[in-house]
Amino acid sequence: MKEVAILGAGYAGLRALRELQKQSELHVTLVDHNDYHYEATDLHEVASGNQPKEKIIYPIKDVVDPKVTTFIQDEVEKVDPDQQVIELKNNQPLHYDYLVVALGFESETFGISGAKENALEMVDVETAEKVYDHIQAMMKKYKETKDKKYLRLVVCGAGFTGIELVGALHDGKKRYAQIADVDPSEIEIYCIEAVANILPQFDDQLTQYCLDYLDKWDVHLLTSSPIKAIKPERVVYSNNDTNKELEAGTIIWTTGVSGSHVMGESGFSEKRGRVMVNDDLTDPDHNNIYIIGDVAAVMDKESERPYPTTGQISLQMGEQAAKNIMQQAKGEATKNFTYKNLGSVASIGNTHAFGYVGSTDVKGYPASFMKKMIMNRSLLKTGGLKEVMAKGRFDLYH
Ligand code: NAD
């Protein structure tokens, strides 16, 4: 029996798994260092303390069909494409005939000094939980010292992740204030962004909707302010060619992501951990290796730029890669991947959101409803109905 290995149980990997489990001609081995899948688009909820981690994770064993799949919980160290083996930290090397690499993203510091050491990342469940632990510790520190910097939270970067995090932190203010024993209005939220106009993927009207809320919530959004360095409890940024410093107890780094470091270590032709794949999602150098999700770059032929990495595109790639492997195993031709953009909705807090669905702009409560439906749909695609019933978002009126 031919062997398929899937590396990573994120959106892309699990979607591929579910598709491959519809057949019985190939055996699948799924590898992930966690024994759970997490909803990466919900990490800000855990980082802000608005949701416990249990709400955004489910056990991988729930989606593994033992008739087709073996799950190995281990760290992938390297792929050797010539020998067709995967080196694992604690297990024997794993042989494959077909490989799906879906190892996901890591935080990207762009070489900014002190970012790794002095800012908090929010890239997985563990780091998201650390952010909330840190916020609570800073609130307690304020109570002891009365130093206002401990009430200040800085989000670095106003991309999709940064803006969703800012909204969630705003929702969490009351809780933080209780720990610090202050009025919620004393908790200060800053967001520092390099470019002048945030969220270029949305039209001006939608971005304005977001800006109006940030303003109403007294979020200090500093645009045209590239961050130059992070020192302990201090952000150094430039504005109008002048370097400025902002003191803060909590500094969270959300200025962008790169693909897994394993891509470089395995010798794939990558840039920032992402490989520009063939039209059928195979690696340009190996036609039995599919590279999908945040470790892949797929060219948008219209804009001539790679599509942004999102949960939605990862799910679609997972499905196509699995179908192509089944075709290849039967000796039939693979199909090219075509991305169907169903829309994009960003939440700002639990009850506000904005974006577009199909060609229609949505904002406010309907957008928030759509956002929750999108999340439930992605849960359905990776975890099935059981996970939607257990973890789905149905708190639509709060
Ligand atoms: P991003 O690259 O989209 O945004 C990073 C932001 O940080 C940008 O606005 C950039 O200008 C800014 N920045 C970079 N360097 C900076 C510096 N030195 N100082 C100040 N600002 C700086 O990254 P992201 O928000 O982490 O998102 C990564 C990808 O994941 C994107 O493709 C995004 O669309 C996607 N995403 C999707 C969802 C979703 O669909 N729900 C949620 C989160 C992220």
TrEMBL record:
Transmembrane segments: none
Cofactor(s) required, per the database record: FAD
GO molecular-function terms, A-Z: NAD(P)H dehydrogenase (quinone) activity
Highest taxon listed in the record's lineage: Bacteria
Keyword vocabulary terms for this entry: FAD, Flavoprotein, Oxidoreductase
Swiss-Prot/TrEMBL GO biological process terms: aerobic electron transport chain
Gene3D superfamilies reported for this sequence: 3.50.50.100
Entries under InterPro entries matching the protein: FAD/NAD-bd_sf, FAD/NAD-binding_dom, NADH-Q_oxidoreductase
Family matches, as Pfam families: Pyr_redox_2 (PF07992)
Domain FAD/NAD(P)-binding: 3-305
Similarity comment text for this entry: Belongs to the NADH dehydrogenase family.
Protein's name in the database: Putative NADH dehydrogenase
Record organism: Tetragenococcus halophilus subsp. halophilus
